[in-house]
Write a structure and sequence with these properties.
single chain, globular, 18 strands, 15-stranded mixed sheet, alpha/beta
Length: about 425
């Protein structure tokens, strides 16, 4: 049996790819699994990222799934465990970041871990315990309008403390700036004071590299994907281009977008403005029983030979709230996810072999519908988003799972150019 160095548990599918991408850039050979595998690992890799769809489910279910992933990773010999959540730390007062962190700590028998969603490459920084998106506090960045996990407080100590019975502390920037030894000493002080989880400031990749050194040997690390750049060095691994090589791409191209983030809204509009074919999905028509998926596939079939097409449910927050008021928040989301997943599967049946999926919940639904169980992680398209190679029921497929908040306006077209 191959033994892995780093075992990772991600609370959504795009976040899993985001983490795997940073590990590959740092030289690790990585496989991402969709859910907890039913059999032992056979691939010769340095790290495995188990992708769960647990961010917005009931806390007790998120805990159960995460503990199952932990058990499997331990059976593969993982030396360190990494719990990955979004760089916007989006959650609710009930979870799921706090409950999962505590459950993993209990299972691993550890009394301390760190928490930081910092990812400077994507303009997510933590300073004095406050999370910034660019130059804006998180709760003023648009995340306060998130349809499932609105974030109305940027103070991460406060946010996490509401979800955990352990005392939450802070390793602030003045400590991180002094280096790994200073971080180690601060952690020792916090542990003596009874702190169980510490938010860690980071405003640059240099901060993450210093932090990474200080985390060597820590049984559990919890973070966004940013901390991953500083961990492979602890195992004697250096960056290598070979870690990201994928098979040659072929076939037709399509985009399926369910994210309603500001970034994805801009990407959808840029694709449309460029004159590419795009079709919007109306959740109310789906709710009335219209076979919207069949309509979308009939629309796409003659267009795919001419270049990439886009099927999207992305909308502004006001439009989303109007739909939610009629269908309910959970039902509206579930309807769209199921419809887009059916469309993604139909697009592959039509010959699509290069597929972009935008949005964490949408990505989860799509990869499950496609029957994808593992993905080889390839080159980075934009910070946090790699191309991956997998198989959908025997059909080779290049796929990327894009977090809603990531990427520039031209992401959809730029991504396909990489595979040309």
């Amino acid at each position: 049996m191959n033994k892995i160095l780093l075992g990772c548990i991600a609370d959504d599918f795009t976040g899993a790819s985001d983490l795997a991408n940073n590990l590959v850039r740092a030289g690790m050979r990585v496989v991402q699994t969709i859910g907890v595998p039913a059999s032992p690992l056979t691939a010769d890799v340095d790290a495995v990222v188990v992708a769960l769809k647990s961010r917005t489910i009931a806390p007790q279910d998120a805990v159960a799934q995460s503990l199952a992933a932990l058990s499997w990773l331990q059976a593969q010999g993982a030396q360190q465990i990494y719990f990955k959540y979004c760089s916007t730390f989006d959650s609710t007062a009930q979870g799921n970041i706090g409950p999962v962190t505590e459950a993993l700590m209990d299972a691993l028998g550890t009394d301390f871990t760190i928490a930081t969603p910092a990812f400077p490459d994507n303009k997510r920084t933590v300073f004095k315990g406050y999370l910034f998106a660019g130059d804006t506090l998180l709760n003023e960045s648009g995340m306060q309008n998130h349809p499932l996990t609105p974030m109305t407080d940027a103070n991460l100590v406060r946010v996490l403390q509401a979800q955990t019975r352990r005392v939450v502390g802070l390793v602030d920037y003045t400590v991180v700036a002094r280096g790994a030894q200073a971080v180690t000493e601060r952690i020792a002080q916090l542990k003596t004071a009874g702190v169980g989880v510490a938010i860690v400031d980071a405003i640059s990749n240099d901060d993450l590299m210093r932090l990474g050194t200080a985390l060597k040997g820590m049984p559990l690390v919890t973070a966004g994907s940013g901390v991953a750049i500083g961990l492979p060095q602890n195992f004697g691994i250096a960056p290598s281009a070979q870690a990201s090589v994928l098979p040659q791409a072929s076939g037709m191209q399509a985009v399926v977008s369910g994210s309603c983030s500001l970034a994805t809204n801009a990407q959808v509009q840029a694709f449309i403005t460029a004159g590419r074919p795009a079709l919007a999905i109306d959740p109310l028509r789906v709710a009335r029983g219209v076979d919207v998926a069949a309509e979308a596939l009939a629309w796409a079939a003659p267009l795919l030979q001419l270049g990439p097409v886009l099927v999207y449910s992305t909308a502004e927050s006001a439009a989303i709230k109007a739909v939610q008021s009629q269908l309910g928040v959970q039902e509206a989301g579930a309807l769209v996810e199921r419809t887009l997943a059916t469309i993604a599967k139909g697009l592959v049946a039509l010959g699509v072999r290069q597929l972009i999926v935008a949005g964490g919940e949408t990505s989860g639904a799509c990869v499950q519908a496609l029957g994808i169980t593992q993905m080889q992680i390839g080159p980075q398209i934009t910070p946090g988003v790699p191309w991956c190679h997998s198989s959908s029921e025997g059909t080779p497929l290049h796929i990327t799972l894009k977090s809603g908040n990531f990427g520039g306006n031209d992401f959809f077209t730029d991504a396909f150019k990489m595979l040309a």
